[in-house]
């Protein structure tokens, strides 16, 4: 059963709220504006919910409007204030907290421009603890027209000092908006005891459905309707009311007033502390991004040095623990959190933040289970040698692993028998991780090789040797041991082939096993869809054609080439595939173009080469425009159909080992062959799959369908049509409902 720890994004609907919503749809379905009995019943229900909300929020004589959610409430409040400011002399400032939900600054910018006011908009700075800079606010208060400060932050849970803000605003003409979304049900708000003018709320953050919310407007505060129409809500917000949502919100507020299932602050704080302890034990070195004693008792925001948010999210998700990276809105983009940046946290902390949040009806059994799973996640990470404190108990690793940083590829070739490893094209960003892995596995470095002197970064080989606590010995500038013909690594052998062109010193490394040539590390000489550029000062454009011919002779058309850059997840290529995609390469290898003609044609391609999507120097000129392959997505029913036709299909789990250890896999019957190959291990597995009979379907799956789609597309590009990806991944895989469906509500 999933443990949902993302309550600040949204919550499930309480059973009593569901029942109330259903009743409002099936029985008391009237329109509250109708004057017949059915309508009157609906109005009575609505008035009852409003009265209850008034008590819960301490709304006193203020107005409470039903709206669609906080975003609408914020728009209405901003429109109302800016409309009032139109007539105010001077140029009042519009102030908002730097950590405010984006709905606030975006609404201010939108209405400020649309109303043609163009008033100055300023962010109120916050301190390292996430709280507003009250001295700054005091200084700006006399000139302020609107001040927006949330009651509690959605990412960090930091609770604002509303009394301090009220004091800083004493005597200010500013209107004051307090976003109460995350505070509802967790903090007493006592709206009418403060001079708050507007306060928006969303039902779905507190066990009501999406699409219903509240806006508090202080008695006497300026008001301009956002929606005009049939005069509902006293003509302040037109549109027939969302009665099922209002009924559900009423049921939640009733439960909150009764107190029964909602825990008090001390109980919630104790739950939070237990989760914090479990996290610290599971992930040594973990840091909390905001001081827990200043935060909502239901939110923890943390980062683990050396472990990305993406890795942690995948790991937690595999353990059926739903958490979020920063805020839900920015999670998809994996951008650093602007909230943590505003707090002045170091870049690594704001880029690798994870948020864990639970709702105020959580119980002890739920917290126990969450803590147990957090511990299992920590063990899984330790066993994969990814956790900073890990040692000893790791599984031995064998074969080739690929790492990618902003499109640049680094390879780790490990031999379990000799416990030695070779790194090809080390990247500075990976030094700590690779050294950690080597130490944890107890491997010695046999060599750290560069395929060329890189244009976009200096080789980090010396740092890697130092971080691993080992010595490179007598090696040349690319890390190859002086006088060595070949480099042996267990049953594998590496030899080298000079391929000047991209740079003078470009070198390909050929990896042989006892029987044959397995793969070639080609650096940037040939990349998927591109040839390495040769317009750098250290390039040798006239020698490029001969190098390609030498590579073709050594590797042949079908050996897998492993590139130094892979900007769009193609993993590996072959000369045959590239000749189809790149006419220039086909021409030079077929002898239709001489060295000078090739160099000239290539120079034309490289004119005005733009930066990559990562804002790094492009290492090659794209020539195939990114090929579009037929979709490899397979929905669950289609997979079942395929399985009936091919009972012995190959099912490949492409999640990382630390996820595979924890997660479930689709149940497809015993005839299905299964493999577990993380994307990082794809370069090693591709050759094996390409050798399978052409009609054997290979179906990849992962958590969400993204990584499996990459694997299927990579294999298709190499000519294998029967490569598929399970659409939507395990997230959409049908699963048995928990015995007690409401168990999920223990959050
Ligand atoms: N304000 C805060 C603090 C929030 O957390 C959210 C939602 O994440 C919103 C406003 C916007 O709420 P809604 O999307 O329900 O309109």
UniProtKB/TrEMBL annotation:
EC number, UniProt record: 2.8.1.7
Superkingdom as given in the UniProt entry: Bacteria
Domain called Rhodanese: residue spans: 645-742
Keyword annotations: Aminotransferase, Iron, Iron-sulfur, Metal-binding, Pyridoxal phosphate, Transferase
Amino-acid biosynthesis as UniProt keyword: no
Classification via InterPro entries: Aminotrans_V_dom, Aminotrans_V_PyrdxlP_BS, Metallo-B-lactamas, PyrdxlP-dep_Trfase, PyrdxlP-dep_Trfase_major, PyrdxlP-dep_Trfase_small, Rhodanese-like_dom, Rhodanese-like_dom_sf
Catalyzed reactions per annotation: (sulfur carrier)-H + L-cysteine = (sulfur carrier)-SH + L-alanine
Stored Gene3D superfamilies: 1.10.260.50, Aspartate Aminotransferase, domain 1 (3.90.1150.10), Rhodanese-like domain (3.40.250.10), Ribonuclease Z/Hydroxyacylglutathione hydrolase-like (3.60.15.10), Type I PLP-dependent aspartate aminotransferase-like (Major domain) (3.40.640.10)
TM ranges: none
Swiss-Prot/TrEMBL cofactor(s): pyridoxal 5'-phosphate
Keyword rRNA-binding appears in the UniProt entry: no
One MF annotation (Gene Ontology) recorded for this entry: transaminase activity
Family to which the UniProt record says this protein belongs: Belongs to the class-V pyridoxal-phosphate-dependent aminotransferase family. NifS/IscS subfamily.
Protein name: cysteine desulfurase
């Amino acid at each position: 059963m999933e443990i949902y720890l993302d309550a600040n994004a949204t919550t499930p609907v309480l059973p009593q709220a569901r029942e109330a919503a259903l009743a409002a749809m099936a029985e008391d379905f009237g329109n509250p504006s109708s004057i017949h009995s059915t309508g009157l019943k609906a109005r009575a229900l609505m008035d009852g919910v409003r009265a209850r909300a008034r008590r819960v929020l301490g709304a006193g004589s203020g107005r409470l409007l039903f709206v669609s959610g906080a975003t609408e409430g914020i728009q209405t409040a901003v429109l109302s204030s800016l409309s009032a400011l139109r007539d105010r002399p001077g140029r009042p400032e519009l102030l908002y907290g730097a950590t405010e939900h984006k709905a606030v600054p975006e609404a201010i910018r939108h209405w400020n421009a649309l109303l043609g006011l163009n008033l100055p908009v300023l962010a109120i700075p916050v301190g390292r603890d996430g709280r507003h800079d009250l001295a700054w606010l005091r200084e700006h208060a006399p000139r302020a027209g609107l001040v927006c400060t949330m009651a509690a932050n959605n990412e960090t849970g930091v609770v604002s000092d509303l009394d301090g803000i009220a004091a800083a605003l004493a005597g200010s003409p500013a209107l004051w908006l307090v976003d109460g979304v995350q505070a509802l049900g967790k903090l007493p708000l006592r709206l009418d005891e403060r001079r708050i003018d507007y306060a928006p709320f969303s039902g779905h953050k507190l066990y009501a459905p999406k699409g219903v919310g509240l806006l508090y407007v202080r008695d006497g505060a300026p008001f301009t309707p956002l929606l005009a129409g049939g005069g509902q809500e006293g003509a302040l917000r037109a549109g027939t009311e969302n009665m099922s949502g209002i009924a559900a919100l009423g049921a939640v507020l009733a439960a909150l007033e009764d107190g029964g299932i909602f825990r008090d602050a001390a109980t919630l704080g104790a739950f939070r502390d237990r989760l914090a302890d479990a996290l610290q034990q599971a992930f040594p070195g973990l840091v909390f991004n905001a001081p827990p004693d200043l935060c909502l008792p239901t939110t923890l925001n943390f980062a683990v040095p050396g472990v990305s948010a993406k890795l942690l999210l995948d790991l937690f998700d595999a353990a059926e623990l739903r958490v979020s990276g920063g805020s839900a809105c920015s999670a998809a983009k994996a951008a650093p959190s602007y909230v943590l940046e505003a707090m002045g946290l170091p870049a690594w902390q704001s880029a690798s933040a994870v948020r864990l949040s639970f709702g105020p009806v959580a119980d002890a059994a739920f917290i126990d289970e969450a803590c147990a799973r957090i511990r299992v996640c920590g063990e899984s990470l330790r066993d994969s040698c990814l956790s900073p404190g890990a040692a000893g108990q790791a599984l031995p690793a064998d074969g080739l692993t690929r790492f990618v940083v902003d499109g640049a590829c680094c390879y780790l070739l490990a031999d379990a028998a000799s416990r030695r490893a070779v790194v090809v094209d080390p990247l500075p960003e990976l030094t700590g991780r690779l050294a950690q892995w080597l130490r944890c596995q107890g491997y010695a470095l046999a060599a750290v090789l560069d395929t060329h002197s890189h244009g976009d970064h200096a080789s980090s080989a010396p740092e890697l040797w130092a971080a691993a606590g080992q010595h490179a010995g007598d090696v040349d500038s690319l890390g190859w041991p002086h006088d060595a013909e070949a480099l042996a690594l267990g049953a594998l052998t590496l030899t080298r082939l000079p391929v000047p062109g991209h740079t003078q010193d470009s070198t390909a490394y050929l990896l042989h096993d006892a029987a044959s040539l397995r793969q070639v590390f080609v650096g940037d000489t040939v990349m998927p869809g591109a040839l390495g550029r040769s317009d750098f000062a250290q390039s040798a454009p006239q020698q490029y054609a001969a190098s390609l011919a030498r590579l073709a002779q050594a590797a042949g058309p079908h050996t897998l080439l492993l590139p130094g850059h892979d900007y769009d997840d193609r993993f590996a290529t072959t000369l045959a595939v590239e000749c189809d995609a790149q006419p220039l390469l086909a021409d030079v290898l077929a002898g239709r173009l001489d060295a000078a003609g090739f160099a000239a044609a290539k120079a034309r391609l490289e004119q005005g080469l733009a930066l990559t999507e990562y804002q790094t120097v492009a290492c090659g000129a794209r020539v195939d425009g990114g090929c579009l392959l037929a979709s490899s997505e397979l929905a669950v029913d289609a997979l079942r159909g395929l399985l009936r036709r091919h009972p012995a299909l190959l099912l490949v789990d492409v999640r990382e080992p630390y996820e595979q250890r924890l997660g479930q896999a689709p149940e497809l019957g015993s005839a299905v062959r299964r493999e577990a190959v993380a994307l990082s291990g794809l370069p090693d597995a591709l050759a094996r799959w390409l050798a399978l009979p052409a009609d054997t379907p290979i179906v990849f799956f992962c958590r969400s369908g993204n990584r499996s789609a990459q694997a299927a597309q990579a294999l298709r590009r190499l000519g294998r049509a029967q490569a598929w990806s399970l659409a939507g991944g395990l997230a959409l895989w049908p699963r048995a409902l928990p015995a007690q469906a409401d168990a999920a509500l223990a959050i």
